[in-house]
Specification:
15 strands; seven-stranded mixed beta sheet; six-stranded parallel beta sheet; binds NADP nicotinamide-adenine-dinucleotide phosphate; Rossmann fold; Quinone Oxidoreductase, Chain A, domain 1; 2 domains
């Protein structure tokens, strides 16, 4: 039995080259024979891959070795979080037909150790893709980032609010009784965020961004918690609107992904004047508590407080065999300024 699999050809230094077959290509596609399963291994067929900015860090030459991040080096298979179906198993806990989530290769079929599998996806009335969105890495980041740091009645600002993490953060904050204002890069995306229940949303490309944000924050014109996945200029502006003793939760710095020079914060003295707390958030600190988040997120989903329909997903369907080679391009959608709102997923197959 053979499988197609993507390898990392070159670590990235800036923008990845998603074309295949060039000396500077970031990825290389190969077809190879699958080895017989050993004890404790599972053969899985890929159903969906999650596309995450985190993968950028896994393959970035400049990633800090001390950041505790997974690193992928040239000649190693490219990895992704994903959903897969078990085809064959030499691990007691998995049986053919099980649908599982975990850490897989960018491959049609992967042989993984049972430890690479997070768990079986239980039967549910929610769509299967919920396991990679609302209750996947981005949804759990939103859940713990918000739930652990807000109280009912707080005013919360969420940047990158139409993205995978932000859209769940907005809905979790609403479910917990906060006033929520989103930030996105277009009026259309703001409409989407308000459709999720946000009390307001402001387009950061609007020349009157800061004035409009202040207005959206209500009578006081300040916020208590800023859930920030963007950093740079947006962070620099929003900290001027933080209430005394407010909290900036640093979840990401996507504005600096292409150009670290954009990360500068000039309004830093306000951190002292307003007694702000700046706190780094890392989802890996909460992995052991994922089951409690899944319970709440599933409950809120079934109550209609969190959406899991196609409007919150950005699915690239590569289930036709000839489209497999487009996996890097689907991932590249993450960096496309015109991408639609929602969690970017790559579909490879439906479960059997
Ligand atoms: N700390 C953790 O444990 C953890 C866990 C998961 C994710 N994260 C981080 O959270 C961030 C969001 O991840 P995601 O999966 O939600 O990504 P995503 O779905 O791709 O959404 C990212 C959003 O960021 C916005 N954006 C991109 N470039 C921007 C810029 N230069 N300025 C302002 N906004 C920009 C885009 O929206 P607009 O079109 O509105 O600009 C985009 O929708 C990433 O930085 C990721 O690394 C952190």
């Amino acid at each position: 039995m053979t499988t197609r699999v993507f390898y990392l050809n070159q670590q990235i230094e800036g923008i990845p080259n998603l074309a295949l077959g060039e000396p500077s290509s970031t990825f290389r596609l190969a077809t190879e024979k699958l080895q017989p399963l050993k004890d404790g291994q599972v053969l899985v067929k890929a159903l969906y891959f999650s596309n995450d900015p985190l993968q950028f860090a896994w393959i970035n030459k400049a990633s800090n070795e001390n950041a505790g991040l997974r690193r992928i080096f040239p000649g190693e298979p490219m990895g992704a979080l994903g959903l897969a179906q078990v085809v064959d198993s030499k691990a007691d806990q998995y049986r053919p037909g099980d649908i599982v989530n975990g850490s897989f290769d960018w491959a049609e079929y992967s042989i993984v150790s049972a430890q690479a599998i997070t768990g079986k996806i239980p039967q549910s009335s929610l769509p299967l893709t919920t396991a990679l969105s609302t209750t996947g890495l981005t949804g759990l980041t939103a859940y713990f980032g918000i739930k652990e740091h807000v109280k009912e009645g707080d005013t919360v600002v969420v940047s990158a609010a139409s993205g995978a993490t932000g859209l769940v953060a907005v809905q979790v904050a609403k479910a917990l009784g906060c006033r929520v204002v989103g930030i996105t890069g277009s009026d259309e995306k703001c409409k989407f965020v308000q459709g999720l229940g946000a009390d307001g949303c402001v387009n950061y490309n609007d020349p009157e961004f800061i004035g409009k944000l202040k207005q959206a924050l209500g009578e006081k014109g300040t916020c208590n918690v800023f859930f920030d996945a963007v950093g740079g200029e947006i962070l620099d502006k929003v900290i001027t609107l933080m209430a005394k003793n407010g909290l900036v939760l640093v979840v990401g710095f996507i504005s600096g992904a292409k150009n670290p020079a954009k990360m500068a914060v000039r309004n830093w003295p306000i951190v002292i004047a307003s007694r702000l707390t700046i706190k780094g958030f890392n989802m890996s600190d909460y992995v052991h508590r994922a089951p409690e988040a899944v319970v709440d997120l599933t409950k809120w989903s079934l109550e209609g407080k969190i959406r899991n329909d196609p409007s919150v997903l950005n699915v690239v369907d590569l289930s036709e065999e000839s489209k497999f080679a487009d996996i890097p391009k689907a991932w590249g959608l993450l960096f496309d300024e015109n991408k639609k709102p929602g969690k970017v997923l790559t579909k490879l197959a439906d479960p059997k």
